[in-house]
Structure formats: C-alpha cells, structure tokens
Amino acid sequence: MTQATASTMTTHNLSVRYGKHLAVDQVSLSIHSGQVTAIIGPSGCGKSTFIRCLNRMHDFIAGVEVDGQILLDGVDIYGPSVDPVSIRRRVGMVFQKPNPFPHMSIMQNVLSGFAFTRKRTSKSKEEIAEIALKNAALFDEVKDRLNAPSGALSGGQQQRLCIARALAMEPEVLLLDEPCSALDPISTARIEDLIHTLRTNYAIVIVTHNMQQAARVSQVTAYFLSGKLIEVDETRKLFTNPADQRTEDYITGKFG
Amino acid sequence: MKCDLASQRRAERMMVASVETILKASAAISILVTVGVLYVLITKTFDFFEQIPPSAFFFDTVWTPLFETKRFGIWSLVTGSLLVTSVAMITAAPLGIMASIYLSEFASPKIRGLVKPLLELLAGIPTVVYGYFALTIVTPGLMKIIPHLSGFNALSPGIVMGFMLVPTVSSLCEDAMYKTPRYLKEAAYSLGARKLSTIFLVVLPYARSTIIAALFLAFARAIGETMIVAIAAGLKPNFTLDVRQPIQTMTAYIVQVSMGDTPQQSIEYLTIFAVGATLFLLTFIFHSTSKIILRSRFTVTT
Amino acid sequence: MAAFSEQDFLSTANEMKEVESARVIVGITREEKNAQLVERIFRLLCLSAAFLPLLILAFLVGNTVISGLERIDLDFLTGFPSRFASKAGILPALIGTFYLMLLTTIIALPLGVASAIYLEEYAKDTWFKSLIELNVTNLAGVPSIIFGLLGLELFVRALGLGPSLVAGALTLSLLILPVMITATREALKTVPKNLREAGLALGGTKLSVTLRVVLPLAMSQIITGAILSIARAIGESAPIIVIGAATYLAFLPNGLLSEFSALPLQIFQWVERPQADFVENASGAIVVLLAILAIFNLSAAWLRHHKEKSRGSL
Questions:
Q1: Domain B75-297 in CATH: superfamily?
Q2: How far is it, in rounded angstroms, from Cα A85 to Cα C20?
C-alpha cells in the first residue's frame, strides 16, 4: 500500500458563479488524509459544483468564475504558476456514472492515466495494475481476464475499475461524486466497504444524496444548502445532534 | 341518408386503396432500377465472355479493344483507376481527418458553422469543372516542380479528386468525433490528460469505425469518378505505377467508347459493359462495407 | 426554489474546450510549456487542413471565373457551337440543360415524393420495406456512369428512344431518385407524430392526413431537397455522354425525342480540344454553369432559412 503523505485540502471562502447564478457561496472547508468527508444536501445545493473545484474540472466549462482559495498542502491550486494537470494527478476523481474507456481492456483502463500523462514510474506496469486493482477490491474477479474489454463488466465492477484507475495514479486526495447512485445495493455495499479500507491512505471526499450512506462511511459530514456550507461536524454528532436548525430539517426529512 | 354515407365511404376507401397501390408501386421502382442495372451489366458481360475467354480478360495487362490487334486485359484499366484513387485517398484522408479534428475539437461554434457548409461546397462543384481545373491549372503548375510529368497523368486528377473528397471524409468523421460522450473525456481529464492526449486516446478511438467507414466511402466514390479522369488522366490504357504517366481509368474508357460511333453488336460495344460490371463490383464492395460499418456502429453503443 | 439546477450547467456544457479563465495564467513548468507548444502546432496543422481545400478551391474558381468572364458576351450566350472558337456559343447547351432539368424534375419529383411517402407513412416493417430501403441505399453509391450504361441499354436501345432528351431525363431521374427519396423522407420525419394522430382522431383517412397535414408541413424541406437534387443532376456529364448526347449540336432541341446537348457536356467537349481559345470557351461555359448552380443552392439555402424563421412561431 502506498504510504501517502498526510495531505490536507482546504478551501477559504470558495465561491463559484455560473453567469449570474451563485452556485457555491463562500465555503471554507478542510479535508484531511485518513478520513472520509461526506458532503450532503438537497439537489441544487452546490455539492457537485464544490467537489469539481477541487480538481479544477471547471476549467472546461466556459463562463464559470471561481473566487477564493483552494489550498493543497498549503499551495493554492488556482495560483498563477500552477499547472492544472499536475493538480489532477494528485487529486483523483470517480464519477457518478461509471466511465471506463470502452475501447480499452481492463488492464489498459487501469493504466490509462499513464498513457495520458506519460508519467514515469519505477514499478512495472503489471505491478501497478495489480496493486491498484487489489486496492479497489477488483483484482480477484478480473485477474484471469485482464485483457478483456472493460464493457464486459457489471456496473459495480466498472465503478471499481474506475476507482482502480484513479488509484493507479497514486493520488493524495480522492473525490467521489455520488459514486454509487447508478449502482445496485449489493455493489453499493461493496464500494462502501472499499471506502473504509481506502481512507487510511487517502483524503476522501464523497458527495452523496443518501444520508444513510454518509452516516455509514464518513467521519466528517458537511451539509450544504443553496451553495452555502451550513454545518460541518463529526458525522455522528451532525446526525444525532445538529447545531443548525436547517441541518436538522434536512436530516429529519422535512424537505429535500 | 345512411345509403349516401355508406357509398361515400366505399368510394373513399376505393380511392385510398388505389392511391396506396400507386405509392407502393413508386417505391418498388427502386427495386426495378437495381434489377435493371444488374440485368444489363450481367447479360452484356455474359455476351462479352461468349466472345472473349475470361482468361484473356483477367490474365492480361494490355487493353487494346479499339485497335487492330485486340487484347482484353482488364488490369490496365483497373490499375489506372486504383492509381488515381490511391493518390486521391493519400490527399483526402489526412486532410479530411485533420480537418474534422479541427472542427470538432478546436473550432468555436461560429467557425464550425461557417466552415462546414463551405466544405460542402467542395462536394457541390460539378466534376467536369474539377477536370478542367486539373488539366488547365494543376497539371501545368505541377509540371514546374515535378520533372518528367506528362500532360496527362494520374497525379493531377488524383490530387484534385482528393480535395473534392475531403468533405466526404470530414463530415462523417467530424460528426462522430463531436458526439464523443462527455463522460469519457471527463474521465481522461480527471486523470490528468491534456487535450492532445484526450484527442488521440479517447476521441479518435471512439470515432475509429466511422473514420474507416468514411475512408471506404471516399474510396468507392473515387473509383467511380469519371469526368476528372477522363479530362486529365488520359485516354490511353497504361499498366504502370508511375503517377507521372498518362493512364486510363475504367470510367474514362467507357466515356471514350461512348463518344465514338460503336456498332451495337460489336465487341467494342460489349467491352463497356464488361468494364462497367468490374467497376460496379468494386464500388459495391467498398460502398457496402462502409454502410455496414456505419450501421453496426449504432447497435453497439455502450 | 432554485431557478435552475446545477445539473443544467453541468450538462449544457457539452463542449469540453479548455477555457482560459481570468484567474489562471499557466505555462510556467517546462512540461506545460512544451505541451502547450505541441498543442498549438497541432491545432495549426488541423486548421490548415480545414482551410487549405477552401483556399485552393477559391484560387481555382477565381482563376477560372476571371478568364471565363472575359469570354462571356451576348454572342457567346446566344450562339451555336462552331469550329471557330471565337464564334462558338452555348445556346443549344443552355437550352438542353434547361429542358433536361425540367423533364427530370417532372419525372423524378413525383416519383421520389411518392416513394418517400410510401416508405415513411405507409410501409409496415416487412422484408419488402427493408428491401426497398436497401436498394435506395445501394443505388446512392452506384457511380453515375453505370446509370449511363443502364440508360443506354434500356432507354436508348431497348425502348427505342434513341439518344434523346427524354432518354437523358429518364436516366438522370433514376440517378437522383435515391437522393430525392432520402431527402424527402427526412423532411417527412420532421413532422411531429402527434399532428398525424390529431388528424386521424378527427376521422381523416391516412391519405387525407398525409395530404393535408404532413405534406404541407414538410413541403418547403421537400422542395429544398428537390432543388439540391436537381442541381446535382445539372452538373452530371458522364451518364448523358454514355447515352449519346451530342457534343456538337448545330440546332436547338425540338421535342422530347430530339437529340440534345447540355452545358457540362459542352464544357467537356471544349476542354478536350488542345487549342487555347477553346479552353477559354470552356471557362466561359463553366462560369455560366456555376452561376446556375449558385442560384439553385442559394434558393435552397434561402428557403431553408426562411422556413426556420417561420417555424419558430409554430
């Protein structure tokens, strides 16, 4: 297992604007290695927008304005001398809809990060793939068919493949944007188990619309509403004794 | 009252039925056209092979049916067609693919909206005009830089044809590239890819089968092209791989015979059908392969 | 209630073109600089690939138009072919093209529209329909000269029509039929299903709904398709050469069974001559041909644009 240095990602007064719409409003939040931070909130609250700032995926959308700071180990990732590509190699992402590359085999998918970035490594390709697949709890199921096309896998397996692909790059932070919402309950459970084992070595952020899932997997939970960070606290405390009335309204199901 | 309505409905139904029959018959005409083409080509080719043994057709490289000593080796014309087609494909393929990369990955929507119809213009110019260009402007221009370039050659019409085929390649490819699902590109970018890597490792593989189909389609069109080669490539069959020499394509030969006075039952008359059948077969193979690839693409979506 | 969900923004941005936001100035690391340079060079190459054919076409057409315009005068437009280049004119060719166009429209348009209506509105998904569709697709890929061969054997010889206008028009009609059918079907497809249902629910027969609802709505797009198909037919020379159209016609076509010439054919005949002034004649004829095609294409474009504007209020 990789011994990643303990990382911290911190946002200071992060705001995101699409045209006139303020999607994220002055959010200051820290995430730490060794723990899972869940972000919950009703749809449209800005949680997906927020998480996509952390690896600068908004660079690809015209008309987006990002204000505030996002520090990765003390360095602002939106700073003037920062190459966004380098950020994305340190901050990995898994998307809501599993998106393995259909024209690549399982093995090629896992290693695709190296194909894109020509990153150098001392380990052999097979080693990297094996380690990543094992860390994603997929190796045993696919070890005999590493050269098979990725489309032959089930939805849950494809998502674990995407996790393996992200892990192969040895990121410091792992962003999970509703990773289980397209999956069945059994696959969801397997991925939640996986998240448990992964958190020792990564700083994990998971966006989820499923409060029970947040309660199951995270140590820290942040509640967003209309772009604002309403409350962030230890998961157990937020769900049993929230400080803010709005949080309580959400988790007791009064709306959302 | 009821009587009137009933008879009115009956008359209406009769008219509707007869109109339907007329419509059905119209549609069936397309089947008749194919039958007609096949019938004409096959029967006349059989008539041809009654007089000329197939071995003389398929195993000879000299084609002189219009001369005193007649030889009927088809390979002269086939290589002529293939030579020009190859030059055309070498021109059209890189230009078409790179143009489609530009249009789908780099161009702004405004430029895309402007350039796409302009490229369609290329396809709309009559081929006789392209032949004029090839003979009167391109060949003299090329003669200045290429030594020993004959006034009629395979290079000039090939290049002009290539330019003409760029929209054939680019419109199909650009469409497929543009439709690369966003989530695939997102996956690549999130792994730290830059634009170029994404184009080569995600977009192009995604569009790969369409690109191949587009090239097959362009190839089929190039082989079937008549006027550019009839004007600029020459009317003398020549079994050669040298693009600087005059050659004759299958299509140009048919034109040549048609322009002259050929008696109906003569062997010369029959040759145009034998050549036409060969041409039909070649274009059919490439055109159908292209369509099959394109159709199968849409049934194998992830 | 939020006015729009963030999903709207995340999914409307279906173009992932890298945007330089005001905050970001990149390019300090060497890897980044190299990567950007390579990307810029590649972008330039691809841009050139897109524009090179256009530039060359502009050059070629421009060249031709300049020499062609010099040649065109009233005598040229109203004269007959001649052994003397300076006396030669394109009148028979122009008239021939005109009649050819007219006859082809009369034959191909109803046939194409009727076939398309059958395929789109009436035909059930049987082997028969698939067979017709397969035929239409395949015929679209057959080289035009093969249609010439068909026309030669069938219309000129078997039906005894000789190398006449009507034989030429029939041949060209068969040539553009697949394109016409496909374009008309596309036009019919644009009419929403629920409008047909509304007509049928009011007690209309399929025929009356087709004639009174579907056709009128699809008409302008059908006409656009027809204009473009006819424009394509005008430029074709191979099929009419094969059926024996005259390359030197000293009189105007006078009837359906008359011999005829056509503009692209005249161009071909003049280009084949080695003398420079015949080549000049060819350029003049080309200018006329391109002008005619431009009128056709512009009308089609105008119709399309006009239709889109009025459709907006639908």
A1: MetI-like (1.10.3720.10)
A2: 14
